[in-house]
From TrEMBL:
UniProt GO MF annotations: acyltransferase activity, transferring groups other than amino-acyl groups
Record-given protein name: Phenolic glucoside malonyltransferase 1-like
TM region positions: none
Gene3D superfamilies the record matches: Chloramphenicol acetyltransferase-like domain
Length: 470
């Protein structure tokens, strides 16, 4: 296939507010600095429209996307700024100055849109041309980069590459939904400058309380990482994102779905086995209180088991499973749901692979452990957070399975005026090997699972996944 960049433009916030004409600084919080130099998060949304000839794309679609992006940036000014570490400042900040912009690449591809936007198995490399690079250096990093690629007479895709230390998943989804809302309002000849309250970002950082001094801890840990990885001459204040995490060779992407009936059957299986799980197991996972049997827990447990079996992991291999948890409503005082920035922590556990893969009770034992991790979150959302970064950096990538995305973000609702997305992919899992979760595209309450595995592992996973549900 061939993909050609037609234009790389810089989109500035619309010049309609005093705020956009004023320089301001937005400091990072300890939630942000935890993810300080991790690789960015990539997401692609595919939209199908058969009327999209090259002329219609360049004369109608692109101008509307540019104009609506400019209007949206009025509300999301930090995205037009840049991340820097001012001299004399104890921590990095997002600095916005008038005339700052967001990079938007416009491209055209002759690739097979129907195939790329399907759930079928595809080489991970096939989606890379549609993802813009996120610039970062020792001195400055961009918060976000965007690319719109047309597939003539088939559709287009929008790719969002976002800096993990500036946006968490909820904030990225908030931005894309706000952009889609304004673009669709323009399509319907409505006032595009006003966002509903739930799509208006909350930028006040004073709501974040660092009572445990985690900001200093994380910045010190990152400085040590820079020294140990790049030598004593490395600048501990460097903003350059880690370059040692890349897409492994021969990785393919695939998508699987659990519908509501599948999840119900998994739940019933676990419930039927709880009485049979030995007391020692129950004590280990602290299951004296009601366990979580949510779609999230059941999906993660079932997918994790199928992954380990498909990869033929040795039973004595110690596997770490972790997930990111939004704590906006869990901390005191609570943080608004539309807070812009990171407000997440990570929870998880480690166990020998044989526990997950046990033939009779593997699913139930895995569910119990994930449920217990959620209970720990409920008891103390920030407990042990100071240990996360060393853990992230020391666990072998193949021995760590994490979760990206969430069914709560409702990304399939992002209608820019050309309908709902046909397909949404989190492409950064190509590098991390994480399990990508999205709400099912049909809106019927199921879960969409994205994976990036070797081809033979994908074939084995497919067989295990289907057989287990049957």
């Amino acid at each position: 296939m061939s993909t050609q960049i037609l234009e790389v433009c810089q989109v500035a916030p619309a010049d309609k507010s005093p705020e956009s004409a004023t320089e301001f600084s937005l400091p990072l919080t300890f939630y942000d600095t935890l993810w300080f130099q991790f690789p960015p998060v990539e997401r692609i949304l595919f939209y199908q429209t058969t009327e999209l000839n090259p002329t219609h794309f360049t004369s109608i679609v692109v101008p509307k996307l540019k104009q609506s992006l400019s209007q949206t940036l009025l509300h999301f000014l930090p995205l037009a700024g840049h991340l820097t570490w001012p001299s004399g400042s104890p921590k990095p900040s997002i600095i916005y100055t008038p005339n700052d912009t967001v990079s938007l690449s416009i491209a055209e591809s002759n690739a097979d849109f129907d195939f790329l936007s399907s759930n079928g198995v595809k080489e991970a490399a096939e989606l890379r041309p549609f993802i813009p690079q996120l610039p970062s250096s020792d001195a400055v990093s961009s918060p976000i980069a965007l690319q719109v690629t047309t597939f003539p007479d088939k559709g287009f895709c929008i790719a969002v590459n976002s800096h993990h230390a500036i946006l968490d998943g909820r904030s990225t989804a908030l931005f894309v939904k706000a952009w889609a809302y304004i673009c669709k309002q323009m399509e319907e000849k409505q006032n595009p400058t006003i966002l509903p309250a739930e799509l208006t970002p909350f930028l006040d950082r004073t709501v974040i309380k660092d009572v445990a001094g985690l900001e200093t801890v994380f910045l010190s840990q990152w400085a040590e990482v820079n020294r140990s990885m790049f030598g004593n001459e490395s600048d501990p204040r460097s903003l350059k994102l880690r370059q040692d995490i890349s897409v492994p060779p021969n990785v393919v992407r695939s998508t699987f779905q659990l519908n509501r009936d599948d999840i119900k059957r998994l739940r019933e299986k676990v419930l039927s086995q709880l009485e049979s799980v030995n007391k020692e197991e129950i004590d280990i996972v602290n299951s004296t209180t009601p366990i979580h049997l949510s779609s999230f827990v059941l999906t993660c447990a079932y997918t994790l088991i199928c992954m380990l079996k498909a990869r033929q992991v040795e039973g004595d291999t110690r596997i770490y499973f972790g997930f990111t948890a939004d704590v906006r409503k869990r901390v005191e005082p609570p943080v608004p749901n539309n807070y812009f920035g990171n407000c997440v922590t990570s929870k998880g556990f480690a166990a020998e692979a044989r526990i997950f893969m046990e033939e009779n009770y593997g699913l139930t034992k895995t569910v119990l452990r994930i449920s217990n991790a959620i209970k720990e979150l409920e008891k103390g959302p920030l407990d042990g957070m100071e240990k996360l970064l060393p853990l992230f950096l020391t666990v072998k990538p193949r021995d760590c399975i994490s979760v990206a995305g969430s069914t709560q973000f409702q990304v399939y609702s992002c209608d820019f005026g050309w309908g709902r997305p046909k397909k949404v992919d989190i492409t950064s899992i190509d590098k991390t090997g994480a399990i990508a979760l999205t709400e099912a595209s049909d809106g019927l309450g199921g879960v969409e699972i994205g994976l990036a595995l070797k081809r033979h592992e994908t074939e084995a996973f497919t067989s295990l996944f289907v057989k287990g549900l049957a």
